[in-house]
Amino acid sequence: MSTANPEVRDSALTVTTPDGDFAAFVALPAATPAPVVVVIQEIFGINEDMRETCRKLASQGYVAVCPDLFWRQEPGVSITDKTQEEWDKAMKLYTGFDVDNGVSDIIATIATALKRPDAVTRVGVVGYCLGGLLSFLTATRTKVDAAVSYYGVGIDKHLDEASNVKHGLLMHIAEADEFVPAEARQKIVAGLSGNPHVEIHTYPGCSHAFARHAGVHYNAVSAKLANARSTEFFAKYLK
């Protein structure tokens, strides 16, 4: 799937950390300098879904950057949700993933991206699945201007950090998420609903990854609604 926008350009970025260097996919808008949005991957790496997400954000006027957060385990992962073999690999990577290192790599990505001449100082993050958790944690551990979390897995285990959210956080929660039990979803909503910086939307009947482009659980109506909310949210906080 393509944005079909000839003015959006694919690019790349190298992020340097004390532990080593890793790559990031970049989609550039027609007009720069522009705000930065860091796109945080699912358990499938920087696949076509993540690249398309970046291109759509670039078409909306953002420098979209997707870091390779699996680089410590296996650089360059790009798989789908279509086969059991791919799922097995994705779950192996997920279980071996260090969340704190992931947040540190996102922070390094933000710092590197903001040094680009085509970027301005406003920055947001958006994450999906594992990335939804990392987006939440980035909101609690940094001063990003805006964070969007799609069906984050494991957020209920980190609610002790919820009071640290001081800037805009938008959450999209699937009510039939097979990876986030109802009790966990209720804890997340209860733990965050009192924070004036947090906006929460739930999507009845939707499974995990309902907004994944061409995903097996893609729900066009709910994905369109969630993405429209995200577009409005980023415009409010970043432009």
TrEMBL record:
Keywords: Hydrolase
UniProt keyword annotation of Hydrolase present: yes
InterPro entries named in the record: AB_hydrolase_fold (IPR029058), Dienelactn_hydro (IPR002925), Dienelactone_hydrolase-like (IPR051049)
Domain Dienelactone hydrolase: 22-238
The protein, known as: Dienelactone hydrolase family protein
Gene Ontology molecular function, alphabetical: hydrolase activity
Pfam families from the UniProt entry: DLH
